[in-house]
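hey so i finally got around to running the thing on that chain from the lab meeting. sorry it took forever, my laptop kept dying and i had to restart like 3 times. anyway pasting the input first so we r on the same page abt which one it is
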Amino acid sequence: MLNIDNIQSLIDNGEGYNVEFKVRVPSKVRELTEEICAFANADGGYLLIGVDDNGQVVDTNLENDKRSAIQGSISEISPTLHCELYSVNLGDKTVWVIDVPSSKDKPYIFSGSIYVREGANSQKLRTAEEIRSFFQECNKIYFDHIPCHWFNIYTDADAQMIKDFRTEAKLSPSTPRQTNI
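ok and heres what got predicted. didnt touch it at all, straight out
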């Protein structure tokens, strides 16, 4: 849980890859949850409610129904994400913090989509290439596991290299070439 000094430091440094300011909870709580999902797919982060884009603290009160709506919306993120939601008083004003942890359980998906941080903004991944790249960054797809459909083992692989590989790996010379790749 962040203390007053930590929060003031986040505010002083402004929005960025791991920090987002909101004056209030948007009427569509899902917009907030998209930001939270993006933080989860990054390195975690902090969403500060009650701070404007210029870093000015405005007094914000989150009623129980708003807090419940936020928690309910977060529960729609898959896999399960455990965020902290708490308030911190900065002088006579209250800032609400949603603390999104860093995790290795990526990708986090909300409403069928993957959201990521691009600098100080959250973006929905839209293309297959963006999604593939994200999975590679998360180490969920390894280069060695991606099939190379245009590779022909009989015309593209050097027979002597295959023979040397088999010897080095102590494989039987009778093992079919396809098995070695």
